[in-house]
Amino acid sequence: MKRALFSIILFFVLAGLSNHTIDYTMGRHIENRSPYSLAFASIGAISLESRLDCWAKLKANSTENELHKYMQKLTSILGIEYQLENVLIHSSPDIREIEYSITQEDIEYYLAVQTTAGETHFIVSAETNKESSLSQIRKKLDSLGILEWHDYYLYKGEIENTFDESGITRLADIVMKNLQAQTLDTYHEGMSFSSTGYSKELEGKVKTIWVDGKRYNLQLAFYSSPSQEKTYVYIGFPLIVGNY
């Protein structure tokens, strides 16, 4: 009887420890997830792809030979192949530019170095469906040393459903709440919706920008497509740049 009682007690102790371990592991997993993935999860969105856009400049003109050296340096730092035959060169009296695109390890890269009006501009874009790749790319760029990079992140997801204006507004409110953000501006036209905001929770993690006296560090966009029966979700830090 004592042996049976001891076995029962031991079972509940082990079960309690097991539950505690599972809860702790799940908690650590949630803590380690990125803000955008948690935001997608809060509205049932599936992550599709991520994009990083970076640019920097030098206050000096560059020769075409120097542009090629800069491009070689960028590809070397990023650990991607440099295939000279795939380099595009554009030249005019006012501007010189070289462009390079390559897909490597499921990451699409676009690089450009341009010189005009006494400045040399650097552009690096990377698109992937691997969550951790973008931050690693960004860290590699810092090793160039001579440049101060500006970076914008865009994350795209989808929901297997369509929503009217009020439905999309509710989704945006949920995402903003999940990111502990205050909505500052909203825009709605047809099946498209956009809102910008600021989150203290993202301070130190996301760069803050100021526009017309307001500070922003995130932007949301939704596009509901009845023909595809889907709603596309975009989250940009600190704002969305380019087409989406």
Overview of the molecule:
This protein is of the alpha+beta class and 244 residues long. The chain has 2 domains: 35-49 and 155-237, no CATH class; 53-152, 4-Layer Sandwich (S-adenosylmethionine decarboxylase). It is built from 5 helices and 12 strands. The strands form 2 sheets. Strands 2-3-4-5-1-6-12-11-8-7 form a 10-stranded antiparallel beta sheet. A hairpin with a 2-residue loop joins β3 (95-104) and β4 (107-116). α2 (35-42) crosses α5. The relative contact order is 0.14. The model is unreliable at 1-32 (pLDDT under 50).
What's a quick, concise take on this entry?
With 244 residues, the chain is of the alpha+beta class. It has helices spanning 2-32, 35-42, 64-78, 133-142, 165-178; strands at 46-58, 88-91, 95-104, 107-116, 119-128, 150-159, 181-189, 192-199, 209-211, 214-216, 218-225, 230-237. The protein is built from 5 helices and 12 strands.
